[in-house]
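Throughout our pipeline, every protein is held as a single compact record rather than as scattered files. The record that follows is passed on verbatim for readers who wish to inspect the format:
___
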Amino acid sequence: MPQAPMKTDSTILVTGAGGVLGAAILSELRKQGHETILAPTKAELNCLDEGDIERYFDRHRPTHVFHLASLVFGIKGNLQNQALSFKANTLMSLYVLDACAKYGVEKVFFAGTVASYAFPYISLPLQEKHFWMGAPHAGEYGYALAKRGSLGHLQILRQSFGMDFCYGIFTNLYGPHDKFNTETGHVIPSLVVKTVRAEAEADAVLEVWGKPQTTRDFLYADDAAQAAILAMEKHSGEINIASGLETTMGALVDALSKSATRTLQVKWVSDQPVGIPKRHCDVSRLQSLGFTLRYSLEAGIGETLQWYRANAWNART
């Protein structure tokens, strides 16, 4: 059972608050009536600067922390930046989690990744009990190991200092405030950019990397935020945060096409990185807390496309 539930007057720190998950968590916390939320920009809190973190925690004394800040890429970006991803994500989490223990944070929510699961998979859907049983997939090895190592760090801090934590194992998230990069970004924001560009082109061709039968578990940011806060309130230890639905790339492209402003011609490209052929998650633990999806894939894609059309000029890349 959780030792330190959040109260409306708790001081809650959200690192990485400008990202796709962070922005949604901020919005959800405010809707739930939380009064003191710290959401520093990178200029206000550099998670790669240990001294900066020490000073921030010493000054603000958060009671609860959502540690979301990460250096994140898609499959191609992870392949090209293995060492950088491992180093940056390891150091960010090391500094932040050590500060949490030092300054008496009551509970930490850590944003982990489904990429850290042992591969080849023991079984599908992925279950939390199999998380440590082998090495992660080579394509995301640096990022996955950095994130997995933080679970070990949290376990040590709980044993040594009694600091409670929830370790969210996130599936493929998407939504407003994502990084919209067609070369090194994740699949949905990349395809959102391509869809909007194709809408404006004469031939209206949507180029998609991979194969229609490849599967993933996609979760819209608002649902992810609801799940993360629920897990922070009610769960200790590891928990999958996902939709629990196995969705083909073909179905994803269909959802994008339905929300496009014109008919698109889909071109599948097989000579680009596609990663693991099939993946989805068991969400029994999450559902036992009372979680239910609010957004279908079609609704989430529609919201994301609408947001990007309005914000493409200053969206993160």
